[in-house]
Amino acid sequence: MPGKAVRILAVGAVATTLGLSCTAMATGDAVAADLAAGQTAGPDTGGWQIDIASYGWFSGFKGKTATLPPLPAADVDLSFGDILSNLDGALMGVAYARNDRLILYSDLMYSRLSTSENFATSISTSLKLSTTSLIASAGIGYNLVDDPSYAIDLLAGARLYNVDTKATLSLPSIGISKSGNTNETWADPMVGVRFNARITDSLYLTSWAFAGGFDVGSKFSWDLFGGVGYKIDEKYSLIVGYRGLGVDYTHGDYVYDVVQQGPIAGLKVHF
Questions:
Q1: What three-state secondary structure class fits 150?
Q2: For residue 115, how many other CB atoms are within 10 A of its CB?
Q3: What is the rounded distance in angstroms from the CA atom of residue 13 to the CA atom of residue 194?
């Protein structure tokens, strides 16, 4: 039972990053800023332009993550199907705005996952767990190069993580029920560069690289993305690509050292 219990707890404890992937509407501050930006266009003098986007990130999850004391951190290796089967719900949104060379972006992400398991032992035993996560990001950027054929942006911001995990272990046959709770919050500074290149009037390449943490929040965190965009018309664009994200965070006995990666597909709306 102990080994299985650790795995059940680990599934819930990964919600800080799973919230980015399991709803097929996930967005991160870096990826949202990049994908929402769309094609290169040359300097704009018409005031603010705003993009809102939603994405599916069909990722897996691998690494070491905290469970609940006194259980140790657990090694986890989950597929996208494993993650999706534990989803209760999520609320996510992202906004990206540009005025001439000034860039602003923000996103808000909330998700809830739960799981339960009954164990076949000499005493009837059940374990229930729920995890909620909130990820809020904001940043500012500067368009360094805006040529008709390609663009380079410099971005910097912060990403706040909060994850709350509750577990209840019950032995109903003898009337015993015990609950536990962990709540962890941290923030990472993030810096990065984004590159977009026009292929045709409708087709473009987009990519970015971000790094953060620097022992301020996480020891180190990173974001990499590469993809292809297709402009349907002046308002809508489709984007497909591949993203990888890593976070290495430790605070006392709390460990969150994970890598998440997989394909992305999304829709951008321009205003």
A1: strand
A2: 19
A3: 31
Quick count: other Cβ atoms within 10 Å of Cβ 264? 23
Q: Are 56 and 265 in contact (CB under 8 A)?
A: yes
Alpha-carbon Rg for the chain, nearest whole angstrom, is 20
DSSP annotation of 233 reads S
In 74-124, DSSP assigns E strands to 74-78, 87-99, 102-119
SS3 4: helix
Q: What is the pLDDT along the chain (271 residues), one digit of tens a residue?
A: 444 444 444 444 443 334 333 433 333 443 444 455 555 544 455 689 998 887 777 877 788 877 667 767 778 787 777 777 776 766 666 778 889 999 998 877 777 777 776 655 556 677 777 777 787 888 999 999 999 999 999 999 999 988 787 877 777 767 777 777 888 999 999 999 989 999 999 999 988 889 999 999 999 999 898 999 999 998 999 989 998 888 899 998 888 888 888 888 888 888 8
Q: Is 90 helix (H, G, I), strand (E, B) or coil?
A: strand
Total-model pTM: 0.77
Rounded CA gap, 133 and 123, in Å? Answer: 33
Alpha-carbon distances of 60 from 17, 65, 125, 159, 247, rounded to whole Å? 10, 14, 30, 21, 14
What is d(CA 38, CA 179) in angstroms, rounded to the nearest whole number? 47
Task: Check residue 123 and give left, alpha or beta (phi > 0: left; psi -120 to 50: alpha).
Answer: beta
Residue 217, Cβ neighbours under 10 Å: how many? 22
Residues β-bridged to residue 195 = 152, 207
How far is the C-alpha of 19 from the C-alpha of 170, rounded, in Å?
Answer: 27
- First-to-last alpha carbon distance for the chain, in angstroms, is 54
